[in-house]
Amino acid sequence: MKRTLTVCPYCGTGCSFYLVSDGGRLVGVEPSTTHPVSRGGLCVKGWNAFAFVHHSDRLTTPLIRRNGTLTPASWDEAIGLVVDRLRSIQQRHGYDSVMFSSSAKATNEENYLLMKLARAVFATNNIDHCARLCHSSTVFGLAETFGSGAMTNSISCFDQTDLILVIGSNTTEQHPLIGTRILNAAQRGAKLIVADNRRIRLARHADLHLRHKNGSDVALINGMMHVIITEGLMDRLFIEQRTENYAALAANVADWTPERAAALTGLEADEIVAAARMFAAAGRAMIVYSMGITQHSHGVDNVRCCAALSLLTGNLGRPGTGVNPLRGQNNVQGGCDMGALPDVYSGYQKVADPLQRQKFARAWGVSTLPERAGLPLTHAMDAAASGLLRGMFIMGENPLLSDPDQAHARHALENLELLVVQDIFLSETAAMADVVLPAACYAEKEGTFTNTERRIQRVRKALDPPGEALADWEIICALAERAGYGGMRYSGPSQVMDEIASLTPIYGGIAYDRLDRHGLQWPCPGKSHSGTPILHMESFTRGLGRFSPASYRPPAEAVDDEYPFVLTTGRTYFHWHTGTMTRRTHLLDREERTAFVEIHPDDAGRLDVRDRDELLVASRRGEIRVAARLTAMVVPGVVFIPFHFAEGAANALTNNVLDPESAIPEFKVCAVRIRRVV
Ligand code: SF4
Description:
single chain; 678 residues; Rossmann fold; 4 domains; seven-stranded mixed sheet; 31% helix; binds iron/sulfur cluster
């Protein structure tokens, strides 16, 4: 038996465990008892994170579409074809006619290399990744208010806090080990406010459960801030010494009386007053949010409000406080840090800055780098649908299931001249590709992931990949070599990290020999720096914290007589994203086999629906068939569908309207109608 210490490939909590292998096959996992995040625990996904690795569906050889069918090919042929056709598209339609989609499942080194490949080899800033779909509003909103778009505090802060406001995060299901920390905090006496329309598990333990209407977060928080200011409960010293633009915030919330906020949120005015007083009275209060806040057409405004509430009450820069966006996938923080974004290099250094362009061009050995920001992924789908974008290289993502408005996503992908997908399984998107490149999974390669609290951790190779599959970083380097670029010859991921550290100040002190045990939290600017568990302690990254007032905007699509239900989407405890790994894990698949819709018993009664009946759910964009699940988890008028299941794809229904600043889609609210299939 061999034990290999590594990091969980699922959520951004970043738990650590040993992969146990015997004779080249994984047989189980064993939690790391000393790890500061997981502390010897794992959730059900972590315990089963070995099971999909040997699944018979693993891709083992490159595939090229010939006469409409994907057929096996050699690496030489596949790599040559991808490079030649990308080059050919660029010669005919310009550099920006191709797009690279990176992955929050891949390592930091791989995200950095794909970003480098796009910019240095293919001369385009058209590089983005799935953070566009989950936390781009966080990156935008927190960068504006604090100067840094990351979680301000550490997971250990849950042990020190007096109050936790959980808003738009079903934490026990999506980040289970963090959910446990929250429950532990409540058990030792910390106050818990849960603001969520669904009666999530945390709500049962809350001092206050606010079931506000979907999409009314700005109204709720503006109402709370109104109460705090009018009752003089704000932290005047903190506001005076550490913030700017307070007058604008005060003016903005002056007419957000609890009664006005109540009318828009569907809450009682007293509930808003109670929440405000409770939050302001806590010595140390944390805000925890996730995609219930970010995935709206006003996602950035939601983030601005969370930031403002913390600034107003002085809950930043101390243990047990902070604004804490929980990052979804294992390495979505790292994907952003590595510059797999259309407007920044690694470390959020802007491509528009000529000095940064010069610095990266010199290091990468190219004469120039593109100046104009590239396309966000969500705009890229529109550009593909309209024929402006001709080629797409997708590493480890499945946009056919994960993007909003599936019919639109399918049309966009079908319209491409070239679709290349690099993945471990033949996902729904890979099945549409012209070329499929087989990749190693997390257990078969070296690298680093950065978890939600900015902790950079080693991922270690426990066994060889199946067949001819290669690590993503090896495939990217082979593409660069074939394109005639000699600047991507590395002895391994450790050398890639050395290059990242030399170019990226927040990762400046990171090297593999320093990450051996429990990693380091960025910013870590030098080799003797021990990392930064809490941001903004003395001053904010931008200097002063900025109040950014937000006006209320309703969701883009309202219910009406034709589409009378609000649909909201999310994940379940047993599955992960588009299910490529968890649905190939027997124990997880057994627990939650297929798509369902949660509907309130009162609504079900009106529609003559019984539990497990097959329902047809339709929006203005498409329709799906799913099983009814009658539950008071949802309020009457609202239904919930998880987005893991291809056979009942929630994103066939969702609305492709975007936040104007972050380009995140409004996954969390759209209007649907429901009828029983007879
Ligand atoms: Fe993995 Fe997240 Fe579960 Fe930890 S909480 S074991 S990181 S899925």
